[in-house]
Amino acid sequence: MNVLGISGSMRRNGNTAMLVAAILDRVREAGIETEYLTLADMDIQPCTGCEACKDAKWCVLEDDDWGAVAQKMIDCEVLVIGAPTYYYDINGQTKNLIDRTYSLYHDRRLSGRGGVAVTVCADRGCERSLETLEGFLNTHGFSYLGYVCGRGYNPGDVQKDKWAMKKASAVANAIVRYLRPED
Ligand SMILES: Cc1cc2nc3c(=O)[nH]c(=O)nc-3n(C[C@H](O)[C@H](O)[C@H](O)COP(=O)(O)O)c2cc1C
């Protein structure tokens, strides 16, 4: 069993990272293996729309970090994908990652996994970020296990958002139930 958490924020220790980590911590407490990735130091180039992936079944841009992240997404059983809200939507780095999973869509290579969406905003715009993340998960055929929308501006602020931290625990419990329905 493996739960992969990805923070798409360019802030290595920002609010998105904290919310994703809070979910993974709780899942790990239940004895389930987790892995965490931050896109903060990664080079994830945008999709060029070349459509070559329809034949290649993989993104043909090979000089960046996308392939390693994509392979981990393929290998996981549950994906927790988190992104900060920029201009009422997810940030560019996360969108680049998602757009290039088009190459995995042709053969539905991500379908059948569990999925969780996480986003953080300072004040407004979480709703559209969530829709974007849900659009990604639904299009690929993930089983949607829940979401967390946190509030925070400076790194660490989200830990004061009691509702979000509570929701992170609830979502983690949903992941555990999904992976261990017999418990
Ligand atoms: C370029 C940029 C755009 C932002 N746009 C919004 C926005 O539309 N709505 C909002 O509430 N906060 C916005 N914020 C604030 C971030 O969502 C907020 O600081 C969040 O906690 C960042 O998460 P992180 O620490 O995981 O990077 C923006 C921040 C930046 C840098």
UniProtKB/TrEMBL annotation:
GO molecular function, one term: oxidoreductase activity
Cofactor (UniProt): FMN; [4Fe-4S] cluster
Stretches assigned to the NADPH-dependent FMN reductase-like domain: 1-144
Keyword Ribosomal protein applies: no
Keyword field contains Flavoprotein: yes
Keywords assigned by UniProt, alphabetized: Flavoprotein, FMN
InterPro entries: Flavoprotein-like_sf, FMN_Rdtase-like_dom, ISF_SsuE-like
Pfam families recorded: FMN_red
Stated family: Belongs to the SsuE family. Isf subfamily.
Name this polypeptide is given: Multimeric flavodoxin WrbA
Source organism: Methanoculleus thermophilus
